[in-house]
Amino acid sequence: MKKIGIADTTFARYDMGGAAIDEIKKNASGIKVERYTVPGIKDLPVAAKKLINSGCEIVMALGMPGPQPIDKQCAHEASLGLIAVQLMTDTHVIEVFVHEDEAEDDRELKWLAERRTREHALNAIALLFHPEKLTEKAGTGQRQGFDDAKPL
Fold first, then answer.
1. Which residues, other chains included, contact 101 with Cβ-Cβ below 8 Å and sequence gap of 6+?
2. Which whole number is the average pLDDT over 67-84?
3. What count of other Cβ atoms lies within 10 Å of the Cβ of residue 30?
4. pLDDT by residue (tens digit) across 81-126?
5. Confidence (pLDDT) at 147
6. Which H or E run includes 123?
7. Stated pTM of the model
8. CA 64 to CA 8: how far, in whole Å?
9. Closest listed residue to residue 10, CA positions, set 50, 38, 36
């Protein structure tokens, strides 16, 4: 049985972890999901590492940075930490950040958080079970959340 880790935060304004778990359960069997919730985005790297150390073969790190410059700095620092975890453990950590200023209003922000999270959950499943499906999409301008870009 494969194991996926879900690391999320209480700082997020939407339950991204719940959406990820729902999408995984709808689209794959033979998967155990372990969730680890932390206060803020800079806590995600250690949460991801703990999940990997507990046997997770891939982790989704979910966060919603605010719109202020300090929020962007914290998101960047968290991202660097998540990259370090991947390099230390040879394990994919799918970073799923939804910045509050990506949306025009709360309705669009909720839609974006749900859609990006669910699309990345499908990517996590593909990486675990069918990585060739991602190879088939190479160079096609796939985006998670908003519409895909057109290939060149």
1. 67
2. 97
3. 8
4. 999 999 999 999 999 999 999 999 999 999 999 999 999 999 999 9
5. 85
6. helix 106-129
7. 0.95
8. 9
9. 38
User: In angstroms, rounded to a whole number, what is the distance separating the alpha carbons of residues 86 and 104?
Assistant: 33
Report how far residue 130's alpha carbon sits from residue 110's, in angstroms, rounded to the nearest whole number. Answer: 29
Rounded Cα distance, 86 and 63, in Å: 17
CATH architecture, domain 2-136:
3-Layer(aba) Sandwich (3.40)
Q: At what angle do helices 44-53 and 69-89 cross, to 10 degrees?
A: 20
Q: Break the chain into its structural domains and give their ranges.
A: 2-136
Contact 60, 34 (CB under 8 A): no
Q: Is 100 exposed, middle or buried (0-12, 13-18, 19+ CB in 10 A)?
A: middle
- Give the integer Cα–Cα distance in Å for 98 and 13: 10
| Paired tokens of 150 | 């057109």
What is the pLDDT at residue 88?
Answer: 98
Q: Which tokens sit at 148?
A: 């895909």
